[in-house]
Specification:
This protein has 278 residues and is an alpha/beta fold. It has a single domain, classed as NADP-dependent oxidoreductase domain (TIM Barrel, Alpha-Beta Barrel). 40% of the residues lie in helices and 13% in strands. The strands form two sheets. Strands 3-4-5-6-7-8-9-10 form an eight-stranded parallel beta sheet. Strand 8, helix 6 and strand 9 form a beta-alpha-beta unit. The N and C termini lie far apart (41 Å).
Length: 278
């Protein structure tokens, strides 16, 4: 079976660099898709309270026959629970829904800079969760460099990761540099730009030279940059294809050509403006 490299986070915890994402996977399809991912070899699952499918992830872990310690599970705080007391209760609910007694990684899903709860106060609630040992690592998601800087300066725990939208059309050089400055690992969501990347003639041409698919080339680009990535699919063939990216390597020239595709194109909200609460 393919061996996925681990990234060592700033607190010493190891996370598989390639994971399986369940964003937009319907709750009634989550268990089956996650079990397929386990069969293929994935050992890192990325979910969130907002996705509404934590239960399926937990069921898949139990039905897989894998030991809980063999699987790295991330979830994220929903936007309606930024008040510190609400964050603590929401975390307890996630553990109950998943059926676990700990999470490997728990994130603030969005900074929500326009609401009346300061995300630094929310972060301090996550620090309490981390101190309790019920989350082996904590981090943030969709934090701009200015948001991350405040958390580092005003908190007591440096986030282990910052999960941001990254793909060849949105290389996020500034945000990735800020993450690196503070020793925060970059996790890349929407690594295929919701399918837009695979339509690129440039990536298709590179894929042809490696006898790989455009999706595999885009994911390999992420891996070689050092980002943690977790593509999503409910199709067994695609789940397997996305995993088979460790038997080839992009040249420095390939990497440069793909990076040059950057055009600042987001497929999701701008974190400076997004303040949606469900």
């Amino acid at each position: 079976m393919t061996s996925v490299p681990n990234i060592t986070l700033n607190n010493g915890i190891e996370i598989p660099q390639l994971g399986f994402g369940v964003w937009q996977v319907r709750p009634n399809e989550t268990k089956a898709a996650t079990l397929t991912a386990f069969e293929v070899g994935y050992r890192h699952i990325d979910t969130a309270q907002m996705y509404g499918n934590e239960q399926g992830v937990g069921e898949a872990v139990r039905e897989s026959g894998l030991d809980r310690g063999e699987v790295f599970i991330t979830s994220k705080l929903n936007n309606g629970f930024h008040q510190p007391d609400d964050a603590l209760k929401a975390f307890d609910t996630s553990l109950e829904t998943l059926g676990f007694d700990y999470l490997d990684l728990f994130l603030i899903h969005w900074p929500l800079p326009g609401i009346d709860v300061d995300f630094v106060d929310t972060w301090k609630a996550l620090e309490d969760i981390y101190a309790s040992g019920r989350a082996k690592a904590i981090g943030v998601s969709n934090f701009q460099p200015s948001h991350l800087r405040r958390v580092v300066q005003e908190g007591t725990v440096v986030p282990a990761v910052n999960q941001i939208e990254v793909h060849p059309f949105l290389t996020q050089d500034e945000a990735r540099a800020a993450n690196a400055e503070y020793g925060v690992a970059t996790e890349a969501w929407s690594p295929l730009a919701q399918g837009l990347v695979v339509e690129s003639p440039v990536i298709a041409a590179i894929a042809k030279t490696h006898d790989k698919s455009p999706a595999q080339v885009a994911l390999r680009w992420q891996i070689q940059r050092g980002d943690i990535v977790f593509p999503k699919s409910v199709t067994a063939e695609r789940i397997r294809e996305n995993f088979e990216i460790f038997d080839f390597e992009l040249s420095e020239a390939d990497m440069g050509v793909i990076t040059a595709l950057d055009k600042g194109q987001r497929t999701g909200p701008n974190p400076d403006e997004f303040n949606w609460i469900p």
